[in-house]
Amino acid sequence: MKDLLKTYVQSIQSKLWEMSDYLYHHPELGDQEYNSMKLLVEFLEEHDFTVETGIVGRPTAFKAVYDSKKPGPTIAYLSEYDALPGIGHGCGHNMIGTMGAGAGVLLSKVLDEIGGRVVVLGTPAEETNGAKVPMAEQGIFEDIDAAMILHPSDESYESGESLAMDAIQFDFRGKSSHAAASPEKGINALDTAIQLFNGINALRQHVTSDVRIHGIIKEGGLAANIVPDKAVAQFYVRAKDRNNLNEVVEKVKNIAKGAALMTGAQIYIDNYELSYDNMVTNQTLSNLFTNNLLSTGIAEIKKSKESYGSIDMGNVSHVVPAIHPYIGLDSPGLTAHTQEFADTTITENSHNILAKGALALAQTGYDLITNKEVFEKMKEEFYEKVNA
Ligand SMILES: [Zn+2]
Ligand SMILES: [Zn+2]
Fold it and tell me: N or C end of the chain: smaller count of CB under 10 Å?
């Protein structure tokens, strides 16, 4: 039965290539991926999926379900299809979207025999305002047993870790005045922001080595002869796990309050973008996927790479067993977020890799549904790691 998936992939692979190429030629930015969503949704509907669009209040998000109406696990594949300004699909989300939808369709072809459900989730705006965050928050994964997403890269890597991240804005309000004639009447908001930077730089010695704190001054006054009455600083603060991150963020906020106390400015603190949690890879699920990917003929899969970025799949991995591996485009050193990367996603070789990725995802879903032992092991690992 599992071998049937290999046969089915041959019948849909030219459609998968066509869709990935179409997305490459028609890139759309996050939360504006209307045509990209439509393309994937129509493909899924042709294959008897029931689709709901605009979930969690995001117009370009969707949930597509194929239900065998027989008992069994629910497997989810996540599709991204947002592009980058100027360089289109320089992160290869045209391949992610197509591999996710393709895997869903493949698995659906054997589902009536083996039972269970398959869900394809369209998750917009990964590069900017990840829709997986509200999806994880609003219970989209409550009836899902495992969630998988596959990202293209220079080479293949197992699913690994990513940093938890908060995006914090500090808005300082002082009092303007003539900077030379009556400086004593002013309260300098820019000086307050500079003290925040100085305080954070002193904090760096006393954080764990995984912590990353990086910021800018967005607004810092209008003219040198006016005491700046407004200064806005934005920071990303990241750490390997949420507890450590929360402690560091608390310290950063206290520095900001201290800076405001020094100058007498008012301070308003906000999260200016969604917070991402660290990625917790389910190793049982990861091993299962790695073996399936090897079986499709991908020669080498490296151990996960050390990552200091943050991904919205992290939030998903805290509510359901999840993986976020990378599939190699046979181009060692190829860098994401470049035109070269985008161009590489539509070569003949990448077409073959795309079909292999969709197949390996489908095979992993098949294994979870038919192998109760490995399914239970995955669940146990999840409860130990995440609910501990
Ligand atoms: Zn990217
Ligand atoms: Zn990406």
Answer: C
Contacts with 270 (C-beta within 8 Å, 6 or more apart), sequence order: 168, 169, 171
Would you state the pLDDT for residue 233? 98
C-alpha torsion sign, points 151, 156, 160, 165: negative
For residue 315, report the distance from its CA to the centre of ligand 2, in Å: 16
How far apart are the CA of 90 and the centre of ligand 2, in A?
8
- In this structure, the answer to whether residues 303 and 369 fall within a common structural domain is yes
Percent of the chain with pLDDT over 70: 99
Give distance in angstroms: CA of 111 to centre of ligand 1: 33
Q: 260 with 295, same domain?
A: no
Chain segment 244-275, per-residue pLDDT in tens: 999 999 999 999 999 999 999 999 999 999 99
Average pLDDT for 352-372 = 98
- State the sign of the Cα–Cα–Cα–Cα dihedral 134, 137, 141, 147: positive
Residues 263 and 243 in one domain: yes
Ligand 1 is an ion; its neighbours by CB within 5 Å are 91
Tell me the CA–centroid distance for residue 163 and ligand 1, in Å: 15
